[in-house]
Amino acid sequence: MMQGEKVIPRQKFAIIYIAVGLVLAAVGAVLKLAVYKKTMYDMPLILIGIGVILCIYAGFQMLSSERLGEVVLSGKSAKTFLTNNAIILALLALVVVIIFIEPRFMQIKVLLDIMTQSSTRLIIALGICFTLLIAGTDLSAGRMVGLAAVISTSMMQTETYANRFYPNLPQLPVIVSIVAAVVACLLFGVLNGYLVARFDMHPFIATLAVQVIIYGACSLYFDLPPNNSQPIGGIRPDFAALGQTKLLKSFFGGFSVLIPIALLTTVIIWFVLNKTVFGKNVYAIGGNREAAIVSGVNVFATIMGIFILAGGLYGVGGVLEAARTAGATNNYGNGYELDAIAACVVGGVSLNGGVGKIRGIVTGVLIFTVIQYGLQFINVSPMWQQIIKGIIIAVAVAIDLSKYRKK
């Protein structure tokens, strides 16, 4: 042990978390039962929830005490913690400021709205993270979202709608429109993967070219008569239900079905990245491509798989986004890829490849949603919102590059 360092057993460290969690839960319970005031809104319940989460986290720490080892406290570890969590700490400070300006932000309903808005963005970010993990990117993601939205909604209009995309099309099962939209995105995912894997084209250039192709193709489809580039509306209720259904309505008005869909997708992608050979190959290629080749990794097949899987996730995200808004235009999804890339980077996915975790991506998406939703909540100008987002992206990338240089 070096001078100035203090070693704490993992179980003792977990007990500290439990103590803090119990204190927060107790404070929340007292506020709720004894001195609760309307001006505090749902703060007591939020404190109880945070306390419970801390206790659960501490339980995992105890169960993993042997694998994780002891906790070393020092000035260096504190600096590392602050560096790795600078964006999250800044977000917490921003939330405190927002709550101070507008206490109504302390509501469970607001939290559920933030999670709903994050759901489709998270699915898209989970797709794009695969391309970042191999030190690439995917600029076609947003246009694939728009393509999926246009294709799915064009087939899901009510019979009585005056400006139907397909006037004589019978009422098809919802699954048909979903499959058609996702398959279209999968095909463009194949094109992305083939350009990168077969010709060793840089993903930035390959996906930029495919982005332009997709937008042109989507615009041509959108301009077909009798639609003639009119926004697609009159969406069938059974299709809109994919993004608008509320579950457990007795719980603060209910929460969107998009939330469990996003959670399920997150669990599946976590399993793919951490428990499958394909996932380990993705990290291997991103960490050291030459070493991966020597180790017998099929780079061509892995890169193809990455872009095909990403295309499928963009398709799902586009369908859900179209269902949530009950409409679509050829400009749907514009810029989504940049938000997804930024969320991944803020969440710790390295632009140099080979580094990134699912929980970081979830955190990154939530950070950007909270920023956008919170600043709108206190009526901050959209121009200032863009400036703040840009600063956060620049800081996150600077931190990422500084960590890489140290390594």
Blueprint (SSEs and pairs):
Layout: E1 6-8, H1 10-33, H2 43-63, H3 65-68, E2 71-73, H4 75-84, H5 86-101, H6 108-133, H7 141-154, H8 174-199, H9 203-222, H10 237-244, E3 246-247, E4 255-256, H11 258-275, H12 277-287, H13 289-294, H14 299-325, H15 336-346, H16 358-377, H17 382-406
Antiparallel strand pairs: 1-2, 3-4
Helix pairs in contact: 1-2, 5-16, 6-11, 6-14, 6-15, 6-16, 7-8, 7-9, 7-14, 8-9, 8-14, 10-14, 11-12, 12-14, 15-16, 15-17
- Oligomer class: single chain
Low-pLDDT stretches are: none
- Helicity level, as a percent range? over 70%
Largest sheet: 2 strands, antiparallel
Structural class: mainly alpha
Strand order of the largest sheet: 1-2
Report the total helices. 17
Mean pLDDT: 89
Radius of gyration: 23 Å
Strand tally = 4
Principal-axis shape equals globular
Order of helices and strands: EHHHEHHHHHHHEEHHHHHHH
Task: Determine the N-to-C terminus distance.
Answer: 22 Å
Proportion in β-strands: under 5%
